[in-house]
UniProtKB/TrEMBL annotation:
<dbReference type="Pfam" id="PF01612">
    <property type="entry name" value="DNA_pol_A_exo1"/>
</dbReference>
<dbReference type="Pfam" id="PF00570">
    <property type="entry name" value="HRDC"/>
</dbReference>
<dbReference type="GO" id="GO:0006139">
    <property type="term" value="P:nucleobase-containing compound metabolic process"/>
</dbReference>
<feature type="domain" description="HRDC">
    <location>
        <begin position="214"/>
        <end position="299"/>
    </location>
</feature>
<dbReference type="InterPro" id="IPR041605">
    <property type="entry name" value="Exo_C"/>
</dbReference>
<dbReference type="InterPro" id="IPR036397">
    <property type="entry name" value="RNaseH_sf"/>
</dbReference>
<dbReference type="Pfam" id="PF18305">
    <property type="entry name" value="DNA_pol_A_exoN"/>
</dbReference>
<dbReference type="GO" id="GO:0003676">
    <property type="term" value="F:nucleic acid binding"/>
</dbReference>
<dbReference type="InterPro" id="IPR051086">
    <property type="entry name" value="RNase_D-like"/>
</dbReference>
<dbReference type="InterPro" id="IPR010997">
    <property type="entry name" value="HRDC-like_sf"/>
</dbReference>
<dbReference type="InterPro" id="IPR012337">
    <property type="entry name" value="RNaseH-like_sf"/>
</dbReference>
<dbReference type="InterPro" id="IPR044876">
    <property type="entry name" value="HRDC_dom_sf"/>
</dbReference>
<protein>
    <submittedName>
        <fullName>Ribonuclease D</fullName>
    </submittedName>
</protein>
<dbReference type="InterPro" id="IPR002121">
    <property type="entry name" value="HRDC_dom"/>
</dbReference>
<dbReference type="GO" id="GO:0008408">
    <property type="term" value="F:3'-5' exonuclease activity"/>
</dbReference>
<dbReference type="InterPro" id="IPR002562">
    <property type="entry name" value="3'-5'_exonuclease_dom"/>
</dbReference>
<dbReference type="GO" id="GO:0000166">
    <property type="term" value="F:nucleotide binding"/>
</dbReference>
Amino acid sequence: MTEPAGGLPPVIATAEDLAAAVARLAAGSGPVAVDAERASGYRYGQKAYLVQLRRAGAGTVLIDPIACPDLSGLGAALADVEAVLHAASQDLPCLAEIGYQPHELFDTELAGRLLGYPRVALGTMLEEVLGFRLAKEHSAADWSVRPIPAEMLKYAALDVEVLVELRDALATQLDEQEKTEWARQEFAAVAAAPPAPPRADPWRRTSGIHKVRTRRALAVVRELWQTRDEIARDADLSPRRILSDQAIIDAARAEAGKPAPTGRPQLDRISGFHARNARKYSERWTAAVTRVRQLTEAELPEVAGVATAPGPPPAHRWAERDPAAAARLAAAREAIGAIAAERRLPVENLLPPDALRRLAWEPPVPATQETVSAVLRGYGARRWQAELTSLPLAEAFAASAASSAPTA
């Protein structure tokens, strides 16, 4: 697939053209294929820079959401129309920001996972299911450029060209494997999912932070990360285009053994601070590290971080903390693995891993099919997941308890 079947449509960039396109889509028939292109790696945040839709009877529509930032009219016109997306959870947040929130959806990636496909990228699924090969050379392009080059627009249009056909083929396979109801519940959960809450201490996700071993060095990571984030937000650039994670880690390690308030930070010895964008803000980097040198011990971050929500410790520590819980988790994982293999789907799609860990750490007493099912639903498992796994998990817990019970 190299050219859209109906030719490349113009990009909609005016309110008048948007209204006409919305009317055309509303008059179409069947589900609507939807995709969005972001500029991850180039711009700050995850907003949409192009929205693509295709519906039978309406053809393909390309919308510039920077020129037309309000798609609430589209959402209203297609309120009762099933939206077909690939990896919907990636695109729904940026679509919601501009007013389009489908109430009913079909996620072709998630359907592929439920069907047991080992690789579920869109190009792979189209080739394996429909026999179409899709060029993906623009998947990491800068979609914030204006005007968007024609070759990139062709790529974007092709992403929705046969998405409904893929949906129909996967729906047939779901029916054949008796997984249609599973998919319906999964799709409904994705559509109804609330916005993700802000991460606690997002600076702790800096690549390479495991090499930073002291509290003051961690404070350097925190200050440089937060400074970089402020600069990136103001400049509308990806933070890593301002300063690399590696430069932050190198600065933290260089400062690890320095005395607190004296001395000038030697950031000029670190190559990452010589990059073009980083050089512009040398004074701010120096100020950030100087602030860390002036912090008291009480103001430094903890090495392990602070728990922000109740829950079990990391699984690798269970054996020393609670051997019985570790045994329960091992038995539970074995039971879940057997069901997943039998049903031909990934373990993580059979049951959320966090729900399984929480259940194994603190199971209900008594652990019966009914009580295990109730706990799983409370942890976010869908009804079909609880129905499949609650009895095997209750039996696994009972077997684990019996094997670890002291003998007379």
